[in-house]
Amino acid sequence: MKQQRGKLGIREYVSIAIMMVGLKATEETPARLYNMAQNAAWMIPLLSAVFFFIPLFLLIKTMSLFKGENLFYVVQKLLGRYFGFFVCLVIFVLSSFAFSFDTRDYSNIIRAFYFNTTPLLVLFAILMTICAYGAKKGIQHIGSVSYLIIFYVIISFIVALLLSTQDSNIQALLPIWGAGKLAILKQSSQRISMFAEFFMLTMLVPYLKSNKEFRKGTWIAYFCVSIQTSVATLFFICLMDQSLGGMGYPFHTTIRYISLGSYIPNIEIFFFVIWIMGVFIRFAAFLYIIALMFGHIFKIKDFEYLIPLLATLYLLIGNMPNNPIEVAQELKPLIGTISGPVFSAIALLLWLSALLKGEFKHAKNKNSM
Amino acid sequence: MQKTRTVCKFLLIVVIAFSLTGCWDREEMEDKSYVIGLGIDRSYHKGKIKVTMLLANPEVGSQQGGGGSTEKPREIVSFDANDIIAAKVTANSVVSRIISYDLLKIIVVSEEFAKDPKFYNILNDVVFDKEIRMNAYLAVSKEKAAKYFLKNKPRMETRPHKYFQYMIDHGIENGLIPDSTLFRFFKTTDGGADLFLAMNTSAVREKHPKFKGEDEYFAGQLNASGEFDDTQFIGSAVFRNGVMIGKLTGQETSMVNILDDTTNMSDFFLDIPNPFPGKRKSFAVRVIKKENNQVKMDLKGSRPKIFISIPLKFEIMSNPSRIDFAKRKNQEVLKKQIASHFKTELEKFLKKTQKELKGAPYPLSFYARKYFGTNQEFEKFNWTKSYLKAEISVYPEVEIIDFGKSPKKNLKVEK
Fold first, then answer.
1. CB under 8 Å to A226, separation ≥6 — which residues?
2. Longest C-alpha distance within chain A, in Å?
3. Which residues cross the membrane (chain A) (predicted)?
4. Whether residue B414 has pLDDT greater than 50
5. Is residue A289 within 8 Å of A109, Cβ to Cβ?
6. Which element (helix H / strand E) includes A295?
7. What is the Cβ-side half-sphere exposure of residue B125, based on CA atoms within 13 angstroms?
8. A206 to A135, A136, A155: CA distances (angstroms)
9. Contact A117 B25 (CB under 8 A)
10. Residue (of A294, A162, A169, A299) closest to A240 by Cα position
11. CB pairs under 8 A, 24+ apart, for B410-414?
């Protein structure tokens, strides 16, 4: 039962990308941003997007030299066999930890707000099973499902934010510079890990129809996601003002707070169902990409069979931290602060070595011939 | 082979169906008791609080038509506990069903305990609880909260959640009580710059309340007679940094609601001194507030100046002097009268907040924020202190949109 290699369209790719990065606005990210820059927190996603634009742009430029090859192929080609292997391994390990702690974090949210008595391990295991099942189906299936639900996810998100305006105060955004201009700049440079998933998404290049589509899709998704995160943070600030800093998961607190008049007071379940579908897609895609990395590093062709195994491994890793705070306040930021700079550095390194090796000239010559 | 696969798929569906019950979080309606009202009092034991729970029976009223349950709609339990969260378990030694805060509608605190600095700490547990929603209301009762729930026996709405919902919703619409959700409470207290108003309620009527002007009552003072509920929702309790420091009457609360753009007040009725000759000294108007206030500030000088202009629409509901409002002159007189009445009342009230309450009773500091570039500058400005010396002027923009049903009925009848 060999899976045939279909191709991803640009819309599927964009929806996967939006799901993978955009969902960050629904976890603790806005609260963490608020703690960094107070009421100017909504600027951070925009500014970090500007900062991360440079490495991402260089990476995509380098990738375009090798038509239809994925990130790891490019890394090994440019950095040599041994050093390339090492870099690939670093990327793989970092993404693995990010995946384990992210899934654990989402299980924590589900347990905290919706299933209070169910043991965490059970919820976590169910989440992993579904993601593994989704990932096993292949990226084409993930892509089409994500395109199916992306509109529901976005619309429900917008509806939730709009409903929250009933009780929000736009003046909470003022003073406009919040903690100060310098602080905002400093914090935004530290939050580039917010977009680190785009780095991993370059693994999917071979699945896209053309390099141009990949480039276009990435920029569309990048633009949407940075705006989305910023707007979400802005709405949360307007709604909660200074309480946002102490809040664990603002999105879920918001959907529990908002209501449709006194006849339909408690509507969080609508948003929860759509949100959880988005979460499944996000982690299925994530898991698939990691399996792809693993397969590439260790030269395993049918890497799809590894997915259940990897899922189990990540379940065990993710289950190691004792409590949700450890995950949300220590481990995730730790991975974030490492992965952001490391990924940017790798992108720069790739571009530099391509430049020094004269690959750009090669490509030009090829084109002119 | 095909058969085995079909069977396997079928089995999988059956297994998935089992998970629909929610695994460990399976809940039975019959087995649940929802806390609608939560009372917090000071306890006689050191370091403890007295918790009162008003529990609703979800089975009552849920069935249409006949055959409904004959069980009682509510249960009330009071006991001493360390905090409100662990109290859930303690209450189970008395209540047969699983207790849940999921539908908590109102938290009632006795005035005595609200003035205790410990109160904010106790209430802060609410933020950590996973069941309590932040749109529950905070109310302050004159008597002990335990007594309040016992005394409160609604006649028309026996289901407690509906009773509180209607009572509070209509009170907020009429502007007599503030929109005091827990969410607003924590938002204001975390902000720290302004005062918070919680609704004032009481289920014990004062024996011989003095007669006062329209709505100038605290809860429990309205001298109504007849057959009705003893519970009254009127006026508000003022909190600074989570500790109660004073009280406002119903009328003052409605003034705050006029000034505050963030509440959901729709429209309310008011008596205004009659500018025309006649025996009756006041006439009734309906005040409608649809647009937001304009607040301008001049914060440069040693005494900050605050200018508030309030767009208000009025409908004249009575005409005791039988004035012909078709004449422009009479319209102008009326308009002027309303504007000056509002101006003096509001300015007097704001002065009172500066002198007695020492803080703005609604998020006025938000308007000051735009004059500063960063949070540090705003903190340096020190809003709480500056507000006390601020010079506040109020400009009501009066627009009369309706002069009543029969504007032209003339003086003839009277003489």
1. A45, A46, A48, A49, A195
2. 71
3. 40-60, 81-101, 113-133, 145-164, 220-240, 269-291, 303-322, 334-356
4. no
5. no
6. helix A268-297
7. 15
8. 17, 18, 31
9. yes
10. A169
11. B410/B322, B410/B324, B411/B322, B413/B322, B414/B322
pLDDT at residue A2, rounded to an integer: 43
- Contact (CB, 8 A) for A62 and A351: yes
- The answer to whether the Cβ–Cβ distance between B22 and A118 falls below 8 Å is yes
Contact A27, A112 (CB under 8 A): no
Would the CB atoms of B25 and A38 count as touching at under 8 Å? no
Q: CB distance from B414 to chain A under 8 Å?
A: no
Burial of A267: CB neighbours in 10 Å, binned 0-12, 13-18, 19+? middle
> Least CB-CB distance to B190: which of A118, A243, A256?
A243
Say yes or no for a CB contact (<8 Å) between B165 and A262: yes
Q: Identify the CA nearest to B277 among candidates B317, B225, B322.
A: B322
Q: Is 0.85 exceeded by the ipTM?
A: no
Centre a 10 Å sphere on the Cβ of residue B228 and count the other Cβ atoms it contains.
11
Quote the CA–CA distance of A223 and A228 in Å, as a whole number.
Answer: 9
**Structural domains counted in chain A:** 1
Q: Give the structural domain span for A171.
A: 10-368
Cβ within 8 Å, pair A169-B366: yes
Binding-face residues of A in 202-231 toward B, CB within 8 A: none
Beta-bridge mates of residue B288: B267, B313
Identify the CATH number of the domain in which residue A258 sits: 1.20.1740.10
CA angle B36, B38, B41 (to 5 degrees): 165
Mark yes or no for CB contact B25/A171 under 8 Å: no
Q: Does B130 touch chain A (CB under 8 A)?
A: yes
Could you tell me the domains of chain B?
31-251 (no CATH), 266-415 (3.30.300.210)
Q: Answer whether residue B412 shows pLDDT above 70.
A: no
The angle subtended at Cα B219 by Cα B218 and Cα B224, nearest 5°, is 105
Distance CA B51, CA A87 (A): 60
Substitution target from B103, B161, B181, B187 for chain A, most A beta carbons within 10 A: B187
Provide the strand spans (E) within B228-341: 232-240, 243-248, 267-273, 282-288, 294-298, 305-316
Q: How far is CA A59 from the centre of its chain?
A: 17
Residue with tokens 């062709």: A301
* Residue A2 counted as domain residue: no
**Within a domain: A263:** yes
Does A178 contact chain B (CB < 8 Å)? yes
Which residues of A fall within a CB distance of 8 Å from B130? 112-113, 116
Specify the amino acid at residue A203.
M
- CA gap B242, B123 in Å, rounded: 9
Q: What is the pLDDT of residue B338?
A: 83
Q: What is the CA radius of gyration of chain A?
A: 21
Residue type, A314: Y
pLDDT surpasses 70 at B199 = yes
Contact A174 B370 (CB under 8 A): yes
Distance of CA B260 to the CA centre of its chain: 13
- A125 inside 8 A of chain B by CB: no
Check if B332 contacts A (Cβ < 8 Å).
Answer: no
Residue A141 inside a domain? The answer is: yes
Contact across the interface for A175 and B366, Cβ inside 8 Å: no
B98 inside 8 A of chain A by CB = no
Query: pLDDT tens for residues B99-155?
Result: 888 888 888 888 888 888 888 888 888 887 777 888 888 888 888 888 888 888 777
The reply to whether A5 falls in a domain is no
Per-residue pLDDT at A125 exceeds 80: yes
Neighbouring CB atoms inside 10 A of A146's CB total 29
**Which positions 160-219 of B are in contact with A (Cβ < 8 Å)?**
165, 169, 183-184, 186-187, 190-192
